[in-house]
Each structure stands twice: as C-alpha cells, then as structure tokens.
Amino acid sequence: FDNQLIDEVLDGFDIERSLSMKGCPYDNAVAETTFKAMKTEFINQYTFISLKQLNIELFDYVNWYNNIRPHGALNYLTPKEYKENFYKNCLIFC
C-alpha cells in the first residue's frame, strides 16, 4: 500500500518506511503474524485509560509473549526457550 500522505508524515518524523515487493505476500509474514497475535491477544482485550497504562500493559504482554507463550512456528517453545536451545546446539555442533 503506497500513500503519499503517509509517506509525508513518516518523513516528518524521520521514519523510513519498508514495503513488501509486489507479488511477494510472504515478505512480511513474520511481522504480520506478530501483529495479528498482538491485536487479538492484547489490543482487542483492553481499553487503556492512559499512555502510562498502555506502556505498563504492553511491557507485560511482550514479556509474556517472549517468555511464557508457546509458538507453533517454534515447535511450541517460547522464543526464549528456542533461543536457548539454538545456542546450546550451536555450542555442540558449531
């Protein structure tokens, strides 16, 4: 999706925009999956009364997402467990 107004706003905040290539719907699959989980498991479950509350709840969600929630794409390990296993195996086989 390319929009001149969005580009101008992002430029105003010195944010570089990254778009998927046409015909490559899987370019951004990991990010899209993460955003979908965040929307269904976090954003749609709360009404935030302040930015401070949002920051606190988001910190807790990210901690849960990385350290407690199993991920099907990671063989039902948490990202933390997957990373730990990767480094253990790397020490053995690398």
TrEMBL record:
It comes from the Bacteria. Pfam families: rve_2 (PF13333). Residues 1-87 form the Integrase catalytic domain. Signal peptide: none annotated. GO terms for molecular function: nucleic acid binding. PROSITE patterns: INTEGRASE. One of its GO terms (biological process) is DNA integration. This is Integrase core domain-containing protein. The lineage of its organism: Bacteria, Bacillati, Bacillota, Bacilli, Bacillales.
